[in-house]
From TrEMBL:
It holds the Pfam family Endonuclease_7. Keywords: Endonuclease, Hydrolase, Nuclease. SUPFAM superfamilies: His-Me finger endonucleases. This is Recombination endonuclease VII. GO terms for molecular function: endonuclease activity. It comes from Micromonospora lutea. It comes from the Bacteria.
Amino acid sequence: MSVLPDRSGKVCPQCKRSLPVTEFHRNRRRADGLGYCCKACAIARSAASRRRRGVAPARKPAEPVGHGLKWCPDCEQVKALEEFRSTTRRASGRHSYCKPCHNARGKETVQRLYGGSREYHLRRRYGIGQREFDELLAEQGGVCAVCGDPDPEHVDHDHRTGWVRGILCFNCNGGLGQFRDSPTRLARAITYLRGTTWQRVLIHPGVFQMCSPTRGRPPSRHS
């Protein structure tokens, strides 16, 4: 039989004080749903950790910020809450940095960890890097695996398994997607094209007429 945690208060294991649960940060990963130590001790522990790692202390606004506003520590400007991206991970419901600074930090991280957005997107979406892309394209002779056009740039993958199948040009990659990667639909499309091709039919010596084997009528003169 499990014992439910006491929601009226909790003893901080660091300062040994019995405090209300409102004095503890929320932590879903712990059994009681609260942080290990109280907010004051958590802040002190975080500051000590930053000093050990040589990280500059967190900056704070020089003056109190009014209701509906938020201070961005990167550009050091006070902006409306709408200028900050929403998030469920913070009690305020907003990220620490405004949208331009948030985007700039994201680009810097992508550049630092992956060397650029191309490498980042390839690894995040397909699980391969530019080196694997180039090797696969070389195995295809440097051309689209479907139509043979040179210098294709799009990775084709199985949407069910996520496995990469090859490198295709824009049109072939989009075409497979429009046909939902279905061999049956593609086979029917081939049958349709072969069965509806307009042909020249001899109706009198030296006289031909364009007609379709399925519709039996010539195309419009304006087509």
